[in-house]
Design a protein that fits this description.
alpha/beta; Spore Coat Polysaccharide Biosynthesis Protein SpsA, Chain A; Rossmann fold; 7-stranded mixed β-sheet; 5-stranded mixed β-sheet; elongated
Length: about 500
């Protein structure tokens, strides 16, 4: 009997089972098979820093009702207690961050000996209830859909943080799907420092040619890529159960990112989940206004959808402004600050999932694609128009500027912020391996347009706007550079980090 048939018999062919049993019987069948299920858990553990967390993970696996074998990948021999095997990975001459990739070969070598395969970093806790939730989800999902997990942290005061929600990463509003009584959706940050595969799924991942590969990076860095390859290059889609989400939450034990720029609060994530559930109930797939992620390595030049209130932008808004339209907003922190200053702020979120969070902050929300929004705003006039960190991500920036410019009163101000995505700076990054040369200049391949003052000026002119000022937002590390050298230094700095330009223009 081939491996696919064996795993189908033991764990259950989800398509066959789900069509012949109701959900209660499926859950019961999974529970009955659980005691005989063999699981291989491989944990990547560099050095000794996280050994306390590693011991907690091993203890959890030892307490499960399943038959679990634990393998610890390490760069050095170390005691891990009874019931766990240590495999020391020879990294001589290799990138040290490539250690997690060694789990893939172990999975492949032991493919026929186990029913379920778990990979995790040494500080991410997967519980038996998580595994049960995974199996129940497999019973209702399609063959190319894999249930995934979502990390959480808990502060000393009990506050919950979700560290994987940061930067441009967001729920894909067009991915919401209902499977029986459950709702699933995809989050664009596939990394949760862990994943689970059935034997059949692992076999399919290996056959795809995208699993047993050399250590590499791309959308994510090397360490994160080791945990995301099954989703990003093996033909599977990671989906997360959001009803309830609690079943798919895994604890990031160090709670490292509490209070940092990485993560959102329980209330903010809750409002996003409510929006996704509403989409599932409505049965209508919404259309995002703009893309917020580039396709470059590490998602360079993407929009930060969760940034704090931008004082440097607020200070540019002219005195006397009473009405403001923000096009392509994220969570709405800057817009909420302006509402607090007494302005009437209307915002068009880049993605409808952000709408509830911004609305809760007192911002008036208009949803839809460009044509729908323009129709809803027909006849309105605003003193100021904001487009922050989005124009370079839009396929036709000039057309979008032309669509919204008529909503600005004569003499009104447009404020646009874009990254300094210069040709030579991007080429420099390509030389360093960030992107293939043949993709540079292709919006379809990179998801961005090159940016220069001349290019932005052309977009403004097309919309009947005249540039008044151009300012540069410099990282603190170059703030001390003499002003006379900044014009030379900023493009050089753009090779290594993201320098931004802020344009203000007026309607002719």
């Amino acid at each position: 009997m081939n491996p696919s048939r064996q795993i189908a018999d033991k764990i259950g062919s989800v398509r066959d089972v789900s069509t012949t049993m109701n959900e209660e019987r499926v859950i019961s069948a999974i529970h009955d098979r659980g005691a005989n299920m063999k699981i291989l858990a491989v944990i990547a553990s560099w050095g000794t820093k996280n050994d306390t967390y590693l011991a907690r993970l091993i203890q959890e696996y030892r307490s499960m009702s399943f038959d679990v074998d634990v393998v610890v990948l390490s760069n050095l021999p170390k005691p891990v207690g009874p019931g766990a095997e240590v495999v020391v990975v020879d990294l001589k001459g290799k990138n040290p961050t490539s250690l997690p990739f060694a789990h893939k070969r172990i999975f492949a070598e032991r493919l026929n000996a186990y029913d379920l395969f778990i990979y995790s970093e040494d500080d991410t806790l997967i519980t038996e209830s998580n595994i049960q939730a995974y199996l129940k989800a497999c019973a209702v999902l399609e063959g190319n859909e894999i249930p995934g997990f979502f990390r959480f942290e808990r502060g000393t005061d009990g506050q919950i943080n979700y560290p994987d929600v940061h930067g441009p990463f967001h729920w894909d509003c067009q991915s919401v799907r209902r499977r029986k009584d459950h709702v699933f959706a995809s989050f664009t940050n596939e990394h949760a420092a862990c994943y689970v595969l059935t034997r059949a799924q692992l076999e399919r991942a290996i056959a795809s040619g995208g699993f047993l590969v050399e250590p590499h990076s791309g959308k994510h860095d090397v360490i994160c890529t080791a945990a995301t390859d099954p989703y990003t290059q093996c033909g599977f889609e990671k989906v997360i159960g959001i009803s309830p989400l609690e079943d798919f939450l895994v604890h990031h034990l160090p709670n490292t990112y509490i209070g940092s720029i990485f993560g959102v609060s329980e209330s903010e994530l809750g409002s996003q989940i409510e929006c996704l559930v509403q989409i599932a109930q409505n049965g209508q797939t919404p259309t995002p206004l703009f893309p917020v992620e580039s396709k470059l390595m590490y998602r360079r030049f993407s929009k930060n959808c969760y940034e704090t209130s931008q004082r440097e932008i607020i200070d540019v808004i002219p005195q006397g402004t009473r009405t403001l339209l923000s096009v392509g907003c994220g969570s709405g922190a800057t817009e909420a600050s302006l509402v607090g200053q007494g302005l009437r702020v209307v915002a068009v979120p880049a993605d409808p999932v952000f709408a509830s969070g911004a609305r809760a902050k007192g911002v008036e929300i208009i949803e839809g694609d460009v044509a729908t929004v323009r129709k809803k705003l027909e006849g309105k006039q605003f003193d100021c128009l904001l487009l922050l960190d989005v124009l370079h991500l839009i396929q036709d920036p000039g057309a979008v500027m032309s669509a919204f410019a008529p909503l600005l009163r004569v003499g009104g101000t447009v404020i646009v912020r874009v990254p300094m995505a210069l040709r030579f700076a991007t080429a420099y990054r390509a030389i360093r391996g960030d992107q293939r040369f043949r993709e540079l200049g292709s919006y379809e391949s990179t998801g961005i347009h090159f940016i220069s003052r001349r290019i932005v000026r052309r977009w403004f002119e097309k919309a009947g706007l005249r540039i008044k000022t151009v300012a540069t937002e410099m990282p603190p590390t170059v703030a001390s550079v003499p002003r006379a050298l900044q014009r030379v230094w900023n493009p050089i700095r753009a090779m290594r980090t993201e320098v931004k330009m802020v344009f203000t223009a007026t309607k002719l």
